[in-house]
Amino acid sequence: MTAPTEPASSIQTNLNRPFDDRHHPDLQVSIRRSFQQTTATQLTMDKWFGKVALVTGASSGIGHETALALANAGMLVVGAARRVELVEAMAKQVSSGVGRIYARKCDVASEEDLLATFDWIRNELGGVDVLICNAGVFRCNFVTQSDTSDFRDTFNVNVVGTCICIREAVKHMKERGSPGHIFIVNSILGKKIPDVSVPMYGTYPASKYALTGLAEVVRKELMFFKLPVRLTSIHPGMVQTDMIKVFDSALAQRLPKLDVGDITNSILHCLQAPLDVHIDELTVMPGMVPIP
């Protein structure tokens, strides 16, 4: 392209006008084409086409919806869950010609299960590019009246299992040497604990606050080791999933709730962002005022 001969101030003035071939046609066409190519490249899932994603808790709710969406976007998705038969059934719903879902029976509270799953992914698919830490448990009770087993179960799944997944996924991403993305499906209870009439939260908020701190620490580690890996912590409000069945109060049933698709769309939004854009945290809440 021939460089324009007019002063820079003149060019800047023309750039502020609507596209018009009468004003530096070569420059305007180049800018228009560049803008179109950038938009098409950066705001799609193309960069993850054929890449490998691991989704924990993939048998229902957010994990189920996200695994299916990623596979339909052309990713190779490993759905890890204890109820593996539900993931196998979901695999038949993939409409993408390239994307696939591989079902793996895995209890996130078991390090042996997790390590076996990561080894299988490395051997069969080459490694993990995208990690969705979604598996979680909620023991609805007062802390002062809970069994010790409830404390252990909550932290083993929500915190320790997530730590193991992140550690192993980062190993894969370092080996692959390509961009990666880690998602922690946290909760609004990892940011604040609302006042309610019957505060039967158990240790669930404590585990989610731990994940908030974990995300900050791991993000700093990724920067320290200069790894091209992004980490996003997603804090949803109440989502219409099986987990909220622990609430049997009439008030809880009346509260506005998010759909699982709202969280899946948030994950896709982060994946579609340019690789040099880091979306560290998203808080996703249902609207409190009905839309007319």
Descriptive account of the structure:
- With 292 residues, this protein is of the alpha/beta class.
- Helices cover 44% and strands 13% of the residues.
- The chain is built from nine helices and seven strands.
- The protein has helices at residues 8-15, 25-42, 61-72, 84-91, 111-125, 148-176, 204-224, 250-254, 260-272, and strands at 52-56, 76-81, 100-105, 130-133, 180-185, 229-236, 281-284.
- The chain has a seven-stranded parallel beta sheet, sandwiched between helices.
- The radius of gyration is 23 Å and the shape is globular.
- The N and C termini lie far apart (52 Å).
- Mean pLDDT is 84; it is low at 1-42.
User: What number is the mean pLDDT?
Assistant: 84
Low-pLDDT runs: 1-42
Shape assignment = globular
Strand order of the largest sheet: 3-2-1-4-5-6-7
Number of H/I helices: 9
Q: Could you say which structural class the secondary elements and strand pairing correspond to?
A: alpha/beta
The ordered string of helix (H) and strand (E) elements is: HHEHEHEHEHEHEHHE
Biggest sheet record: 7 strands, parallel
Radius of gyration computed on alpha carbons: 23 Å
Helical percentage:
40-55%
User: Strand portion, in percent?
Assistant: 5-15%
How many E strands? 7
